[in-house]
Amino acid sequence: MTSCMLLLLIACNSYKGVSGYYSYEVECIGNQMDGVQVLKAWGSGSSMKMAIEAAKKEAIDALLFKGIRKGKSVCSMKPIIVKVNAKEVYADYFESFYGKRGLYKKFVKTTKQGFLKKSSTSSNDGNVSYSVTVYVDIKKLKRQLINDNILQ
So what's the pLDDT on residue 112? Predict the structure, then answer.
C-alpha cells in the first residue's frame, strides 16, 4: 500500500524540467546577385515581434563580427569587421546602431513566410523563439560603415 501511494505521488507530480538554452548559429541560405545575403537567424523575446527583431540583430551581428560558417558556402565566411575588439572599441556607435530606432533596420528585411516558431514558451522566462529568414544588404551596410569611419 505504501509503495502504491508513493508511486501515485510520483506519477501525479508534474514535471518541472529546465528548458535548455540553445545557441543557434546564423546560417547562409543564399546570395542574391544585388549584394543581398539571405540568412536564417534565431531570435527570442517576450513576443513574436521582439523575437524577430532579435533575429535581425543577430544576423547583422554575425555578419559584422563572427562571419557566416553554417549553411551554403556562397555567403561571406569572414566577418566584415576584422579589427580586434571592434564591438568594444566602437561600443557607443553599435549601441546606437542596434538601438530602438537603430540604423541596422535600413539593411535588414524579413518576409512573412520566413517565420518558423521554434518553441512557444520557455519554462522559466516565458520567451518565444523564432527562426527567421533575413535579407541583409551587404553593399549598403559596408558603405554605411565606411561613411561612419568604422571600416576603412
Answer: 65
Q: In what order do the strands lie in the sheet with 36-45?
A: 70-71, 27-31, 36-45, 128-137, 108-119
20 pLDDT band (50/70/90 cuts)?
A: very low
Going from N- to C-terminal start, the domains of the chain cover 23-147
In sequence order, what are the residues at sequence separation of 6 or more whose Cβ sits closer than 8 angstroms to the Cβ of residue 120? 128
pTM for this model (two decimals): 0.77
Pairing of strands 70-71, 27-31: parallel
**DSSP states of the chain as a string?**
-HHHHHHHHHHHSPP-PPPP---PPPEEEEE-TTSEEEEEEEEEESSHHHHHHHHHHHHHHIIIII---EE-TTS--S-S--STTHHHHTHHHHHHHTSTT-GGGGTEEEEEEEEEEEES--TTT--EEEEEEEEEEHHHHHHHHHHTTS--
Beta-carbon contacts of residue 21 (< 8 Å; ≥ 6 apart): none
